[in-house]
Input
Amino acid sequence: MNSFLNLQQQPIPKQFINYRQVGCDNRMDYYLYLPPGCKSNPDFLVCIHGISRNAQQQAEYYRHIAKRLHMPLIAPLFDRLHFSGYQRLSSRQTNHRADLMLHKVINEVARLTDAHSPSLHLVGYSGGAQFAHRFALIYPQRVSTLNLCAAGWYTFPDADLNFPRGLKSSRIWPPLKPDLDGFLNIPIQVIIGSEDIARDAALNCKPDIDRQQGGNRLTRAKNWYQAIHQAQTDRQISHSARLTLLAGEGHNFETNITNAGMSNHILDFIDLHSIGNI
Output
């Protein structure tokens, strides 16, 4: 696999991106990068792919962030067989819990790096941004910063709507318990291309989603950001959310990074909210 080394039973070399399988569960693979000069007891940078499953590409493009922050980078790979519904944390067909699987990955890397209860800097693109903000809603105590890039649709801070559109429990989903107050205290950056307005095959175009959130990713990002901002205002929580537009950009992970500097926006945001930890 070129520089991607499967070294499950060996010491993890630095400067390479290592392809690994979770030791306690063969359903889950992930990419791991340990930068030179990695801090002791570090936070983790965790990058969640979209439905293209480009975890390896994300690890490559975000490696410079991990080097700058001196922390491990983890890029989990949620395969289609076991985790078809990972964006919503669980698949109703298989009931495989993507959120619990990420905990297994984090716990394994924590053992490998002697990290104690590491905080997570979550970054998600498209379907990965869906997973990331829903994971943070359930486990806000584990998340230090949240960067949501080009999500297709969102869970709104609405207690009257069933999950995953809102926070209300539903019989067809696992017994998830969102912690909205905890979530609203996480520094959140919403990143979206100013031209991300296509209604493509990957976009959830159900009428109820359109009515609630808008007809494209750009509109949905703005509406969700405003809803989060209002929820923070209502609870007198400091406004730590930011909306960042990538000028002239549509829905493409690679060009969002190479043309619009998306990864630099992510780095700057994590850096801003990690003073004293770097």
Q: What stands out?
A: The chain is about 30% helix and 15% strand. Strands lie at 17-21, 29-33, 44-48, 73-77, 120-125, 143-149, 188-193, 241-246. The radius of gyration is 18 Å.
